[in-house]
Amino acid sequence: MLPLVALVGRPNVGKSTLFNALTRSRDALVHDQPGVTRDRNYGVCRLDEERHFVVVDTGGIAGDEEGLAGATARQARAAAEEADLVLFVVDGREGPSALDDDILRWLRKAARPTVLVINKIDGIDEEAARSEFARYGFEDVLTIAASHRQGVDDLVDEALARL
Ligand code: GDP
Ligand code: MG
């Protein structure tokens, strides 16, 4: 079985963009509208024959538990719970939101190895973005700009080191 890495985060933080950068595909639907990705979407991140893992792009977690948004949130949780490593993706431009706090709470319950990934650091102060999320208490924090592939190779190295 290939190791499984789950991308988890609220809508619009760049999970699908990161998924595409990791799998070098256009499989995941990237859109300006929050909540475009409804289902789990699997792909393979392959460096070479020995080093590869499966990535699952989960739908945005929309907060309310009713209807489609609720189903999507449950899918995301299921994906996180079966993952060998969770990449908790947040938006470095917007900083922590109430929804990020909620996700953090259930991620702690899921108790899977988790790395905080601060995305969208292109053109912003990386240290300021890091300090905004310092209260989340993660030992492992990566800063990336998925749409520019910035930091994505380091992220792959970090993921592989932890799998
Ligand atoms: P998802 O809902 O978490 O899957 O987010 P998407 O991947 O669909 O991205 C949401 C929006 O953020 C899109 O408009 C992306 O182009 C944009 N985006 C993603 N990554 C970055 C980044 O590194 N920097 C910037 N500036 N925008 C990004
Ligand atoms: Mg998406």
How many structurally independent domains? 1
Low-confidence blocks of residues: none
Shape: globular
Q: Looking at the chains present, what oligomeric state does this protein adopt? A: single chain
Please report the number of helical segments: 5
Determine and state the CATH class.
Answer: Alpha Beta
Helix content: 25-40%
Subunit structure: Associates with the 50S ribosomal subunit.
Family: Belongs to the TRAFAC class TrmE-Era-EngA-EngB-Septin-like GTPase superfamily. EngA (Der) GTPase family.
GO molecular function: GTP binding; ribosome binding
Organism: Pseudoxanthomonas composti
What topology emerges from the helices and strands here?
Blueprint lengths: L3 E5 L6 H9 L17 E6 L5 E6 L9 H16 L2 E7 L6 H13 L3 E6 L6 H7 L8 E3 L8 H11 L1
Parallel strand pairs: 1-3, 1-4, 4-5, 5-6
Antiparallel strand pairs: 2-3
Bound molecules: guanosine-5'-diphosphate and magnesium ion.
Quick synopsis:
34% of the residues lie in helices and 20% in strands.
Describe this structure in words.
- Strands 2-3-1-4-5-6 form a six-stranded mixed β-sheet, with helices on both faces.
- The chain has helices at residues 15-23, 67-82, 98-110, 126-132, 152-162, and strands at 4-8, 41-46, 52-57, 85-91, 114-119, 141-143.
- The chain has 163 residues and is α/β, with parallel strands linked by helices.
- It is built from five helices and six strands.
- It has one domain: 3-Layer(aba) Sandwich (Rossmann fold), CATH 3.40.50.300.
- Helices cover 34% and strands 20% of the residues.
- A hairpin with a 5-residue loop joins strand 2 (41-46) and strand 3.
- The two termini are 12 Å apart.
- Bound molecules: guanosine-5'-diphosphate and magnesium ion.
- Magnesium ion (MG) binds next to helix 1.
- The site of magnesium ion has 4 residues, from helix 1.
